[in-house]
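Let's practice the habit of predicting before peeking. Look at the sequence and jot down your guess about where helices and strands might fall. Then scroll down.
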Amino acid sequence: MNTKNNFEEFPVFNASRMKIALVVSRQNSVITEKVVQQVLDALYEYEIEEEKVKIEFVAGPSEVLMVVNQLVKSGGFDCIVAIGTLVAETAPRFAVEGQILAQELTSLSLGSGVPIGNGFIFADRMKTAKLMMYIPAEVTAGTLEVARWLSTLKPPKTASVKKAQAKKKSEPKPGQEDDQDMEL
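Done guessing? Here is the structure:
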């Protein structure tokens, strides 16, 4: 299967300076193992080396949320992608878990400012899930693009930075003397 990025909507760029985390659910591993390889191939296309990629394997969707949350708090990653396969025919509760997972990942990303890609495959049958194996690699490309865009923004000034800048402005410049220090 060709995993080369041929989609115009995901232009390839050099992301070699980015650090990315993949959090992978082991459920339905027959599909997920292939998906992880496709995602790694996509990252290679963006020139991200192995040492810049952290992969955490966990049991299921709930554990994915827990680990993603902790990785966001660590502040060590430019973006994170959650990967897994939920098939309703293997466990009907997966439909509900999939909705909760999607909502929580979106909420966590918006609240933290860290791009988090939802690379989960949600399908009614295993056969359908196999047809959707390309999706996580596309999600990864989109997540990298958002991380690159965010890196171009100027970071917001914190209160301590603003206070230091105000203090610097109020200090006299070299060569200027304060009226109180001058005696006639």
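How did you do? Residues 175 and 181 are 13 Å apart (CA to CA).
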